[in-house]
Amino acid sequence: MVAIFAAGIAAGTINTVVGSGTLITFPTLLAFGYAPVTANVSNTIGLVPGAVSGAVGYRRELTGQRERVLAVGGASLGGGVLGSILLLVLPESAFKAIVPFFIAVALILIVLQKPINRRLGDRRRGHGEGIGGGTLVGAFLCGIYGGYFGAAQGILMLSVLSLTIDDSLQRLNAVKVIATGLANLVAGVVFVIAAHVAWDVAGLIACGSVIGGVLGSRYGRRLPPGALRALIVVVGIVAIVRLV
User: What is the C-alpha to C-alpha distance for residues 207 and 230, in angstroms, rounded to an integer?
Assistant: First the structure.
C-alpha cells in the first residue's frame, strides 16, 4: 500500500511536469502481481484526480486559453473514448504485445526530449490563440493512445501542441495537463462501466496523484530534468522486461 501510494505521488508529479507518470505506477502494479489490463485500468482511474490538482496549480497559465482548452480537450476526450474501447475489445494478449512497443517509444521520446525541445524552441514565441486542424488531429490521436495505455501521453501531447501552436511552453503545458486528464477521465468512465477495476489500487494512486499534482505544479520545475528522465527510463525498462 505504501509503495503504490508513493508511486501515485511520483506519477502525479511527473504527469504535471513531463507527462509519463504511468511509467512509474504501471510497473509498480505489475511488480505486485496485478494483471496488465487490470493494472492499466486501475492506474488510469487513479491518475484522474492528479490531473485536476495539477490543472488548479496551473490556473494562471490557463488564463485566456478557454477556446484552446475546449478545442484540444474535446479532441483528446473523443480519442480517449476510442482508445478505451480498443483496450476492452482487443484481447489481453494484444495488450501484452503492443504495450512494450509503446513503452519503448515513450522512453525514446523521453531520452530525446531535450533536443526536441531545443528544435521546437523557436515556435514558442508569443501567445497566439490559433487552433488548426493539425492540432485537433494530433490531440485526437494522443487521446486514443492515452485511452489505450497512456505512458508518455503528456510528452506526445506537448510535442503536438508545440509543433502546431505558437505559444510559451508553460502555457502549452497547462493545456496538456487538462487535455490528457480528460482522456484519462473518459477512459476511466468507460472502464468503470465495462472493466474490472482494483478499487483499492485506484484509490491509493488517486490519493497519491492529488498530492503529486500539487507538488508538480508548485515545485516540479525545480527537479533536475536529467535525473527525472533517468528514473523514468529505468522504470520503463523494468516494465518492458516484466511484460516480455
Answer: 25
> Which among 174, 173, 164 has a CA at the least distance from the CA of 123?
164
CA distances from 59 to 54, 167, 185 (A): 9, 16, 19
- Which triple of cell numbers denotes residue 178? 487538462
Nearest to 243 by CA among 37, 60, 3: 37
Asked whether the beta carbons of 166 and 124 are under 8 A apart, the reply is yes
How many angstroms separate the Cα of 30 from the Cα of each of 43, 87, 175, 231, 236?
11, 17, 30, 17, 12
Under 8 Å between Cβ of 45 and 197: yes
The pLDDT-based confidence of 150 (bands split at 50, 70, 90) is confident
pLDDT, position 125: 46
**Which of 24-33, 136-145, 235-244 comes out lowest in average pLDDT?**
235-244
Q: How many whole angstroms separate alpha carbon 79 and alpha carbon 59?
A: 24
Using CA atoms, how far residue 140 sits from 27, 60, 146, in Å, is: 26, 25, 10
Cα R_g (the chain), whole angstroms: 16
Mean pLDDT of 49-67: 87
Q: What is the pLDDT of residue 229?
A: 67
Kindly state the cell numbers that stand for 170: 508553460
CB neighbourhood size of 56 (10 A): 13
Q: 16 near 178, Cβ under 8 Å? A: no
The label of the residue with cell 504511468 reads 22
